[in-house]
Amino acid sequence: KITSIEGRILYNSRGSKTIEVDVESEGKFVGRVCAPSGASVGKYEAVSFRNGRPEDSLQVLKENSQKFIGLESSDLKGIHDTLKSFDNSSNYSEIGGALAFAVTIASMESASKALDQPLFKTLSNESSFKFPFPLGNILGGGAHAGPGTPDIQEILICATGAKTIEESIETNLAVHKELRSVLEKEDPNFTNGRGDEGGWAPKLENQKALEVSAMACENLGFTLGKEVSLGVDFASSTQWNEEKSKYVYDRAGFENTTSEQIDFAADIIEKFKLIYAEDAVHEEAFEDMSELTAKFPNTLITGDDLTVTNKGILSKAIDKKSCNAAILKVNQAGSLYDALEFANLANENNIRLITSHRSGESTDSQISHIGLATKSKMLKVGVVGGERVAKLNELLRLSEHDLIRGMAEV
Ligand code: PGA
Ligand code: ZN
């Protein structure tokens, strides 16, 4: 049973303020979770903090902490309902999604410690688990990097041919490293600067950025689509201009109509044999996403801003066949309970899940467990940077666990 719950203000990897919560059970089992936050935030995601202020969310926790005392820390629904008892909004605007995130995951971590078992086991009744393939940012642009970098937000690597979690992490690291050499040759003024998620942030336009990424893979003797595959997070809502009804590529200097955008994404998917294409059109373009999903059955046509880890919105995407994969970011949903509901709906409908970090992260690693428990096919957590490597290192620790056997089937 929960004996205390307390929060504090800390900083995320971008140096912005965030909330950390400690949930204690039986006076000694402490679950501690620090909330992440995004930069390319979906219109329909949970609000991060009450009034946009971490301090205000923390105040709400202080005022309501007594309501949690005596609850079973493993009773996720009970914890969730208690949060909802003082936030009736649909998007956690009263308490902030960050608070819902931290309280629910910290409770489950506290319960795991009391039960002396890993978090993924507490979150799932399955008797065996498979590792999701790490998917990581090797080149960043858009909202995650400065002027001159690609408009496209993320170019990602995934070692789709890897047989073990060790091999998949090693391969991603090797490609990230090789890309640095390629970029240094390409541009003698390249500073080795990186974007928010650890991908290199060179001054290159979109096509060139994709070409150097492919070159890094080939230099290592890998064939795209075999040992390794590339992915892209277009994060197209950041380009979408509602008034013009066009996608505006400021940095590259062109604009796409909605049909041009579909062709733009389709060309990239084909040319670079992408295994993964996220938010290739803007967050309300469900029909345009359907076109891509029909056209590319062998690519994970993935919703992030499109589906915002929201069960109702995912239902709509399923009805319209708008995607065959979806990002799971617990803080988009708010509470872990909401996120697991979303995961169930996705799994029941053959929507492949990708559990994901945010661009502003903590050094916590619970999402590695959440990826396992939700049967995620991929875990999108970056390649380098302390806050990214923390999640990968946790997967390596978990490889000592005999309940987890082999890699997921993507
Ligand atoms: P965010 O970006 O965490 O900045 O929202 C990540 C993404 O769009 O996938
Ligand atoms: Zn995204």
TrEMBL record:
InterPro entries in the cross-refs: Enolase, Enolase-like_C_sf, Enolase-like_N, Enolase_C, Enolase_N
GO process terms (BP): glycolytic process
The keyword Metal-binding appears for this protein: yes
Protein name: Enolase
Keyword set, alphabetical order: Cytoplasm, Glycolysis, Lyase, Magnesium, Metal-binding, Secreted
EC id: 4.2.1.11
Cofactor binding, per record: Binds a second Mg(2+) ion via substrate during catalysis.
Function recorded in the entry: Catalyzes the reversible conversion of 2-phosphoglycerate (2-PG) into phosphoenolpyruvate (PEP). It is essential for the degradation of carbohydrates via glycolysis.
Cofactor: Mg(2+)
Family: Belongs to the enolase family.
GO MF annotations in UniProt: magnesium ion binding; phosphopyruvate hydratase activity
Residues bound to (2R)-2-phosphoglycerate: Q153, K329, R358, S359, K380
